[in-house]
Each structure stands twice: as structure tokens, then as C-alpha cells.
Fold this protein.
Amino acid sequence: MTALLSVRDLHVGFGRDPRANEVVRGIGFDLAAGETLAIVGESGSGKSVTALSVNRLVDFGGGRITAGAIVLQRGDGSTLDLAQAEEHTLRHIRGRDIGMIFQEPMTSLNPVHTVGRQIEEAFRLNRGLGGDAARTAAREVLERVRIPDAAARLAYYPHQLSGGMRQRVMIAMALASSPRLLIADEPTTALDVTVQAQIMALLAELREETGMAMIFITHDIGLVAGIADRIMVMQRGVAVEQADTAAVLDHPQHDYTRHLLEAVPHFTAGRATRNDGTRGTATAPLVTVDGLVVRFPVGKGLFRKPGAVHAVDGVDFDLVAGETLAIVGESGSGKSTTARAILGLVQKTRGEIDARAGRSRRPIQMVFQDPFASLNPRLNVESLLAEPAIANGQRKDAALRRRMLVLLERVGLPAEALSRYPHQFSGGQRQRLCIARALMLNPDVVVLDEAVSALDVSVQAQVLQLLIELQREFGLAYIFISHDMAVVERIAHRIAVMFAGQIVEIGAAGAVLADPQHSYTRRLIAAVPAIERRKEHYTVDATQVPSLVRPAGYEPPPAHWREAGPDHRVREESA
Amino acid sequence: MSYVAQRLLTFPLILLGVSILVFVAIRMIPGDAITAMLGTEAGLLTPAQRASLAAYFGIDQPVTTQYFRWAAGLLHGDLGISATYGKPVLQIILDRFPLTLELALLSMLIALLTGIPLGVLAATRNERPSDLMVRILAMLGQSTPSFVLGLLIIYLLSVWFGIVPTMGTFTPLNVDPLANLGQMIFPAITLGFAFAASVTRISRSAMLDVLSDDYIRTARSKGASQRSVVWGHALPNALIPVVTLSGVEFGYLLGGAVIVEQVFALPGLGRLVLDAISQRDYALVQGTVLFIAMNFLIVNLIVDLLYVVLDPRIRLGGK
């Protein structure tokens, strides 16, 4: 059997001298018709560049194939070396033979064209359909990717659809030409975990239906366990291991693969939670949140109905010293708004937030998600670290400098870092800087808003370990906001699950994860990709998060709580 | 539509501010109206004659009284009588405005028709020789003073091609379109050259931004041709800054192009204001400036409405 795609000794470089700046250095693989290959690696491993080289989109990003062959078997049985092909030939390969879906559904659709027009374009280009035929085809393919009310959605613009819906539109577009190879470049990374599970299930189903081959790029080895036939692990531009999925997962040969498998936090349904909780010994809570409500008014226009987005709607919890409370939930659940309200970064509508003044006048500090965007690029590390102290009226003296050096050392950065600028650090190092900055004022509580989500898995594991050590050393309490259940399992003592602005379940981490009571918590946990559960089938489910926009004067019905264990409370669900 | 209504409601407020500013500003220029009008003969006037002239023009009253009188007239659409022309200010403006409007429209047409394609071309050939050529041309266009270019055009036409642009009497468009265009095309090119240079630069940088966006890669992955990617997917997303710039430039041109009008001897709004200021023709200056401000507001409103047409995210709300 000849391979559908055969890549041999592929080298890809960038810049003026591509040979000197090679990002992919000798990759080779074969892909049979209908087969799925997962390419797994961390950022900078060259996995996306490899994928983009296959349909030569890499040319438009400044990349050059410096050596190697990419032989594709076309529909008529002839073969073509894509590495040598001319642009006008490649144009007919793209879309027709090779479809592609991308990581960012938010930015991958043209904002000024309707989704219908964009899907119809794919049919026009690759099947020669026009007018009504294209419109009908577009509607049918939207139905195939399970978009409810497909005919009406054709007239929507991308910004009117949610991330999951947009990714379905992307898939619909790629399917328009019935490609024999689909390249999926981190297609679910930007999506919520339950949406991710739906998209993965959809891709698996479509693969069964169409018999297309897939190249699936991801940083999450657990995610592809259920869908890939073979896995190729990439590191610094070379493939360190390539074998059947089962072999790679169960008997990894290369150190880096083993490292990746260990670094990826595997979700174990509450068996790996921490047992150094301080709840039993603590005297009084450090922070108490009681009936927190945050609403943002909408519809101030003349003709629109007034109302409010109920971002946070009646949230209660407390936090003791030395404890981590994880707030988990999907986008729009109100978890970040809760965190921001605690710091006073958004105005609360009502409710009480009591923070006991402890060691510092500013007992609560925050670390944000994006380490690239949350450090001012024009300030050096010394100024960055001094800023919170200066903002609180301290002077930049020898004592402050000593504290900087102590903290830098503590987060694992050299003293020379003081005179450097943020762009000279990697993502993980920057997040360490953000943590050091948050600790400058000696706080009692640190709010970590998706603080490890943007980091590569192995870096993520190190930063999590650092956070746990700092917690023990300084007796810090953490409010850890995250969408990632596996990460939460590693760091949380207690977990609060938020859905649509409310806590639906709260309690000891082990109890909540091992014995989830609320239907939403169960759904969330079922959607977590896990190597152990790779044989299980996840059904496509189109449940949508309810709208949080409520008419003026709306109050949610009072919450009824049920005790499910010693430290485990669940909100009763209305029938 | 409520948006347009809201914007229209702010117009009177802005115009009130402009009217007060121009009213005060023109009176702060040293020298008085009567001396400016009569020149050396003003010295021959007796104090009584001078006082009666001042009373005739109403400039003997306190400034506030003068303002309220003038503002009351405005509410009836009466901009006052020009002291130099002895005609209603509104009529003088409306006589001159068609020329200025036509000149501005022609220049913008030239600028958009050459600037956008050149900008797009430069962006798609980033850092290649043709991009460099376009950038040099654009730099030249922005840095050449309009009188230099205007004189150069006249020189080239008359010396090399033997064509002498008609000067002196201006032929309106509705009288003889061909003769009119013959008169207007060269000043329009002069103004359009610099305008086109700005349009080229802004379309180039907007296109460069857009061409690196994710949805361009998506379009390519579907197999779209370079032409369809550039003109169909990228350009509509790059138009917002082009529209913003064109609106501002067009608004300026509607205030008249003093230098080009002078070089080509065209009776437009620019020379009207200039003459009115040197003559201390208070009513005419006030009326013209107010008229120009009004045009600017309308152009800005049109620009905002164009955003709504161009970008569905503005049209339909959302991020």
C-alpha cells in the first residue's frame, strides 16, 4: 500500500538565511489513507511549522523548505512532491486535497464576511458550485457539524457566534471539499473543556464518515490518546519518538516522551489531591466572601430593553491561611470576575468581602494569565519589582533591594535578572517574575487567575511546584482560578465549581473530584481528556451555557444547599 | 438611527462654540474694519463720519450685543451682509462652494483611485523593489509643497505640450462641463497628489497588518487565489483607516485650498476667507468659518456611518 502522504527528511528554515535558522530539522513520516497521526510537542518544537509545510502555507509566514520531500498521492492516483510544487499547483491542492483547521477560532474567520459566504467560497473554489447550489451545500455542511438552526446561521457574522460554534464553522469549511487529508493545528486549545470534548467527538465521527486521514497537532498528549493511530513526539525540530499510540503512551522509549507524559497533569478523579490542608487547624478565615454580586448594566440605548449581565450572582466562600481554593468553571462562568471583585478591580454590586488585615496593608495580590502582556516591556525587572512597593509609599532603598534579591532567588531567577527587560525572559521565567512581584508586599493571599494556563506543560509543572513550595514557606493562601481540572487537582485543597455566575458545588478537593454531585461538575469532569479513559466514547452534545443577560430587577431564586459530606456542599438543582 | 439623531443633536452645541471662537478671534486681530476697508482714505474721515460708518456696520455696539444680534440672525438662516461685497454672506458662500466641493471630490477621487491600488501593491510586494518605488513616490508626494507641484504642472503643460490652462474666468460645471473639467483637472491633480500619497501610505500599512491576520491564512488554506485573498478578504478589512484619513483630508479640502486656488486663479472658499480676513469683513469671515465647520461635522458623520457599513462588528454590536 502506498502512503497518502510521505514526508522525507523535511527541513524548514526562516529568515534571510533559512539554512542557518532551521526550525524543523529532518522530519519524516508516512500517513496512510484514513489514518490519524498526532504530532505532539511544546511551543517551539516545530510541530506547527511541520504541519504548515505540508500544504506550504509556511511560505506565507516567511518559512522556506530547505531540504526534503513531501509526496502526496492525489485523488487520481498520481503523486506530487509538494516541496517542489509551484504556487498555482499548490492552490488547487489546498482545500481540495488538504483541508486545515486552526487554533484560534476567534481570529481565523474573516470578520467582515458572513459565515455563509465563507463556507460558500470553499464550495465555489473546490467544487465549482455557485449560487443556490453553494448555499444549499453550505447549509448541509453546517448541519453535518451539528450547528442548530443552520439555515439561519448562514447569515451570521463570526463575532455573533461562540468559540465552539466558530470552530464548527471552520470544520465545515474544511469539509466542503471532502479533503482526503485534514490538518488540525491545536483545534481545541482555545476552547472550554466541555466544548473541546464535543469538537473532538465531532472530528472522530466525521473521520469515520468520510474516511479522511488526519494530522492532529497538539501540546496535550492526553487529548489525542483517544483519536490518534500513531503519535510523533517532536522536540526542537526533530522527531524524538514515533510509534503506535498505545506504544508511545504505555511504553515510551525516549526520555523526553517520558518527561512529557509525567509533566502533563493527568486527571485522576481526586486521587492526586494534596493532603496538607490547613482548614482543621486554622482559627479564623483570612477572607470571607458573603453574597457577592457583580452585574454589568447593558442596553442603555433608547430602543433596547434595559437589563444587566449577571456575571457573579450570589457567591459565598471563605479562605484560611495556607490553603488553596480553586475556582473552576468555563468561560463566562464568572470565576475571573469573582477574583477581580475581591481585589476591587471591578465594582461589586452588593455583598461583603472581608479580608482580615494580616502582615501587610495590601493583604491580597494577583498574578494574571498572560505573562507576556502583564509586564510593562519598557521597565526592567528592578523597576517592575519595585513598583508595588513604591505605589504603597515605600522608598527604593537597600532593604527593598534585598527583598527583591531574596524573592528572585526564591522563584529561581539569578540576581543579574534585575537589570534585564521582560523580553529577555521565557514565558515561564516571566510568570516567575509576576509571582515575585506579587510577593513584594508580603501578602497573605495571592489570587492566581489562570496563572499557569499559558505555559508549556513541563514549565507549568515547575511553576505549580514553585507555588506549592512558596505556599508552605510563607503560609500563603491561594485563590486559584482555572479551567483545567488536572492542574486544579494538583494544587487545590478545596474546589468551588462555578456555572453561570453561581457556585454550584464547593468542598474538599478530593470529595468534589472523586464524588461530584452536581450535574455540571459531572459534565466538566467527564470532558477532561485522560489517557486512562481513552477508550471511552464521548457523545456530541450541543448544550449551551444559558444567557447571563437578565431583565432589570431580576433576582435569582434563593439557593438551597445540600450537605454531601463533611466539607462538601452542593446546590440543589431545580427539576 | 438613534445614533445619527444623537450625533445631530450635538451639532448645534459645537457650532455655538465655533461661532463664539471665530467671533472673538477675528476681533482680536489688530486694526479696525473701517481702516481696512477704506485704506489710506480712512485718514481723511472726520470722527463723526467714522462713528456713523461704525454705527452703519453695527460695530459701535459692545461685542456681546454684536454677537447676540448676529446669532439671532443665524437662527433665521441669515449670516449677515458682507461689507466688501455688499451682498448676503450666504449667497457669496453658495456661489463659491460648488467649485470647492468639485475640487475636493475630484482630488479625493484621484487619491483613492491611485492611492489604494498603489498601497495594496506595495503591501503585497513588501520590501521588494516595487514596494520601495511606491514608498519613495509617496514620500515625495507628501513632502512636495502644493505650489511647487502646481507651478511645475503649469510649466510642463505650457512649455512642453503647449496647453495653457484656462485662467481668470471660471466656467461652472453646469455651464460647460468640458471647459470646466479642463480648468479643474490640473488643480485637482495637484491636490490629489499629496492626498494620494497619504492614502498610499495608510493603505499599505493597513494591508500589511491585515495580511498577517489568521483569517488570511484560512482563506489560503481553502485554496483562494492571491487576487481573491488580497482584494476579497484583506482589503475590506483594511479600509477603516483609509476611510478615516480620507474623511479628515476631504474635510480640510472643503475649507478651501488657498495656495492651489491662488496658483490656478480659482475663486474658491479658501481665497474668499483669506480676502475676508485681510479686509476685516467680519460677517463674511464668521459666516464662512461657520459654514466650513458645519461641512466638517457632516463629513465626520458620513465617515462614522461608513464604518457601520464597512464593519459588521460595529453594525451589529459585539466585540
